[in-house]
Fold each of these.
Amino acid sequence: MTKVATTDRLPLDDLRPVLMGLFGEVGSIMATAKKLHREGGAYAGYRHAVEEEFGDALWYFAALCRRLQLNADDILIKNTTSEEFAPTIVSNYNLDSRNSLISAIDELPCLDETLLKLGEATALLLKINTGDENVRILLKSFMQEYFCTLQVAHVSFSKIVYSNIEKTCGRFLESDSSLLPTFDSNFPEEERLPCEFEINITQRKSGRIHLRWNGVFIGDPLTDNILDADGFRFHDVFHLANAAILHWSPTFRGLIKQKRKSDPVIDEAEDGGRAIVVEEGLIAWIFSRAKYLNFFEGQDSISFDLLKVVQQFVQGYEVEACPLNLWERAILDGYAVFREVRTHNSGIIIGSRNSRTIKFMPLARG
């Protein structure tokens, strides 16, 4: 629970944002469970979704304890050591275990019943304030229902703790640059993305966009491919941002013909057509959101929900190793350059993998 302090960005003198966040996450647990109940095996995303919601609820619980100046770990251990629950709830961190919670109950209640009780316990917390004498009782009641619901849902407590720590730290904490992934350092230079690059983007009278690298045109001329012109013809900027900041772009790698062909497995799985489609699809999806947010102008952060979808989009590919804050930087910096290119209808894109940066420079007028 000590990890919460390093990722907690909410005001410390106001309980309401944390209480509302906890209430919302418990509601999400109930909604996810309802989908499972309604759709059964057809709801393929249940396991990941319910683990994430349980983890987020636990984060808000720990943040609430922090504001009440109570030790969350102490509440987790001491207040659940009863005839219902054994103290190994917190101490057992076996990620391979289906459920780290050990119960003395022979017959567990049904899921609907436990969800209703969890909701009731959460609703009671909405009324607390820092001066309540019965705050420990209410917190204990919530945690008992929380752990009971974990058991009925067959969710590992240790798994949600570790997953939530990884997610929140990856989102809110600045990563050590020396520990960030780079995906082609063990390959020959001709198979690596360039450490430094300049790409000229020009728009001709036809409205088509052309890219040039080291004096050579690369890729196909592009248009917006939509009736309502929105600047998507410049979307290669985002591939360049990915290459510079994430050290990943199967599309850009393909354009400059620097795939990792010395390893046939990597060439096919990470640099092949499907990986390219994933990157193109992700960029198109983010663009569909960004165009209604003024292409992130004036924003210094990206919504957590958007970043979580990004994370899900790239599961199974090497770039999933990149923390969410690095994705946030790639998106925001990429769109800052995109806005400049869109304004000028041209430009020079300067990318540096060494500094993980991407910059815009206007083309010289001849």
Amino acid sequence: MADRIPFVVIGENVHATRIVKRDGRHVGGGDGSEHVVFVDAKGQDRIMPMAGPVRAGSDFEKGNVKHVRNALLLGLGGDHVLPADLTGDVDDELAQIGRDYLIAVAVRQQSNGAHYIDLNVDELDGDPAIQKAAIEWAVTLLEPELDIPLALDSSSAAVLAAGLRISNKPNGPLLINSASAERLDTLDIAAETVSPVVLSAAGVGTLPSDAAGRIGNSQDIVSAALERGIPLSNIHVDPLVIPVAVDSNAGTAYLDAVRAVRSEYGPEIRITGGLSNISFGLPNRRLLNEAFVAIAVDAGVDSGIINPNGLNVEKALATDRGSDAFKSAADVLNGVDQFAMEYLTAFRSGKLS
């Protein structure tokens, strides 16, 4: 255990659902000429034009750009992986921009401390055959550009298996994200390929509403993994982080579950979660996220599915816990400040800036 990484960062950004705002700093142009601005892996300023399906979609009309999906469409279309009716005509130059964009997103997360790069192509298209072809293409594209493994993320076991089969594992075993009570076939894949795997505490058809539900579901899915011969050292349990804006007790329910899982399984198992989910719907999310990382690590968390570009774990752990801002955030996260009323008052008065 001495050589184990203290906290594993699963970088979450190469995901087809990710959006940037059309009126935000990541998008230039306007009146039909919008493009995503980015810095490529060589440090050059670049622009990525919009693929037709992205521009024509309802998200675009609502002011959102699915930038990773856009890059996938350009790259896959140019490499003739996708049918022409999905992408339209994509020339070599546009395809290279799509490839360069995906590489830049992955490399930046690696540079900022990620230990895995989470890859999800599910929302590229609903056709399972296209999803499998896309994840194979993306794995082949990204692995040579990285020094760390990928984490393959999909709701389909077949898509996960396709990505694992195509990988040469140049940077070590890939992480599978994720298995749950509804997706036990994913555990079979993890066992067969000797892959580390995220185990979700989601139940069958529902999410747990309290700590007891999270603990019970975690125990069930860990038992299922152990029965298949998956060692504790390959398990990342996710007791599920729900926004405190939705449920004031969500933070305490997650933290209580973390403590119980750590107590039952000891130091070898990993405990993870989408830690920045906790702050959705509230202002000054960085303050809440950094405070939650610090509190979660105290409880026993040693892994996180996060954006390392915006949430630095070392900085979070060095946070001044005696500051009024940290105390205000902690009261929200621990359920003391119900509905974040005092936190919102402090924010509006400028005390949390």
